[in-house]
Write the structure tokens for this entry.
Amino acid sequence: MALRIGIDIDGVLADFRAAFRAAARQCLGRAFEAAEDPKTSKAMAQADVRKVWDWVEKKPNWWMGLRPYEPDQIAKLYSLTRSAGWEVFFLTNRPASGGDTAQFQSQSWIEQHGFYMPSVLTVPGSRGDIANGLRLDLVIDDQMLNCVEVVSASTAKAILMLRSHDQALSNHAINRGIGVVSNLVEAITVLERLREELPSRRGRLMRLTDWFNPSPERERLPDNPRAARPLPPLVQD
């Protein structure tokens, strides 16, 4: 059966912090340091955070303007997913902005960077419940709380995307059985290893020696399914 993977968008694919800092700068007239997260910074009052989100809510298609961390790796992730026959769900709790829905903006943004026809789920609740409900095998997320929820409430494994150097948090994650990577390149390297070694059975991953063999070749659509030839007309009696 196909591996089912959940991938968070902001912090994993998209540089949300930089975009939020820019929004805060325009809305509040204050500059933030690169290492500072204005959305969670104690130096930023909750009233100011609300002002920024109100500004974002009125900005047409604001989510389309986020910068990808590693755009070439998004396309590589698509190629790996297609060749391995995996099912990927992109997870986000993005609030609405002006213009199209957050889901549609996210789908369009991901596709522009080379992952065609992405499945995007807007999930404001527990990532553990989502992982359990979707029967996910693996979740990649940049929030430690989400990773803990995943491994606590489901049989899925979790990988923490830790782009900043925080050895204490890294050690804490590893002690909880959560993998840690610092960028999408490392995350894809893990997925490539799983492609060869993941067990075919459902449930918690056990020994590496139990991990499955690649599935046999199968007929596939073109790499870009939107370039596929139209279906032949239906034969009528």
Q: What stands out?
A: DSSP finds eight helices and six strands in the chain. Confidence is low (pLDDT under 50) at residues 201-215. The longest strand covers residues 87-92. Strands lie at 4-8, 87-92, 119-122, 138-141, 157-161, 179-181.
